[in-house]
Amino acid sequence: MSFSERLADWRDKLRHRWMYRRGDGSAAPSAAAPDGPSGPGFAARAAALLALLNRPGMGALLKRGLIAILVFIALYYPVGMIVVHKVDDDMDFAPPAADRVEGGSLAVSYAAALIDREVNQHSWTANDPFFQPGVMLDNMPNFQQGIMSALARFGFELTDQLGRTRGSSEADPDLQRAAGLLQYPGNVWIWNPSVSLAPRASSESQYRDAREKLLAYNRRLAAGTANYDIRADNLMATLERFAADLGSSSALIDRHVTEEAGSFIDTQADDIFYFTKGKLYGYHMVLKGLEKDFARIIAERNLQKPWSEMMDSFRKAAGLQPWVVTNGAPDAQFQPNHLAMQGFYLMRARTQLREVSNILLK
Q1: How far apart are CA 176 and CA 170, in angstroms?
Q2: pLDDT tens digits, residue range 193-251?
Q3: Could you tell me which of 45, 95, 213, 309 has the fewest CB atoms within 10 Å of its CB?
Q4: Within a domain: residue 68?
Q5: Which of 276, 283, 239 is closest to 254 using CA atoms?
Q6: Looking at the structure, do residues 133 and 181 belong to the same domain, yes or no?
Q7: What is the pTM of this model?
Q8: Which domain holds residue 294?
Q9: Do residues 309 and 352 lie in contact, with contact meaning Cβ atoms separated by under 8 Å?
């Protein structure tokens, strides 16, 4: 039965139903009859609807409308994914003027600028609900969460090392608050009925607050009311913590390559790859800022060459851009293993971090 025939059949059934409710269809309704489902007003509206459906070409119009809705639904997610998707690994990225504070820390400015770029400019996708196309993305959310993981580690180091005069001194309140906010999970939307029926603070709102705290600290630092202790031992401790965190990422890559290398379908390889890529990129940006903040210490210890080599390794590791991430066998002839290549550059960068730390120790 064609669409127009089904529509005509449905129209006839609807007409017969109303005739049955009103008797023979010819008697005038009682003046006191209610204007409800069996009242005259509702019957008149139903008759007008039937008359509209009887108009020539209405069936074809409805059919075209239904097809248009189906096409929109079919294209909404794939087209939306293309529009939203952005893995921004620009190695020349620098904080804009709005995030730079004369007399403040450039590393803090980098952290604040990265938060603004990923949360406000590119849109945070790791917690997108089902009705947004970003929920279908995979690489971008992992990359963004990797960046935030590196910034969270840096926020902790700011609170525990760099932003304190000595280990026994009081932690800076803005840095302490920012470090806590940056630890917030990246996949929290404003409402999750499986956890609570009440609204929750979203990941974006927490990261925006963290950015404001970092900028507030930088402004106080420029005004001379906050501490940023530029000492060799502070830089050494920070680099050691970065190296330890990268060691954890290396162990994750090693375990996945050992257990899943050569699998025909590996849905987790790209998740690990892009999360690690984001972490390496975040550390690369922070280290660019620390290089300027600790320029005097780097010059005194003659660290320019080893620091440059370390940054080059971070740049190579964070800049890997395979079209499709594959986890082939380590000795495969035709299927590459992108995790193994990423792990190589990661370990090289980590080793050079240790080398710089050892020089600072002497």
Answers
A1: 10
A2: 655 666 778 999 999 999 999 999 999 999 999 999 999 999 999 999 999 999 999 99
A3: 45
A4: no
A5: 276
A6: yes
A7: 0.81
A8: 94-361
A9: yes
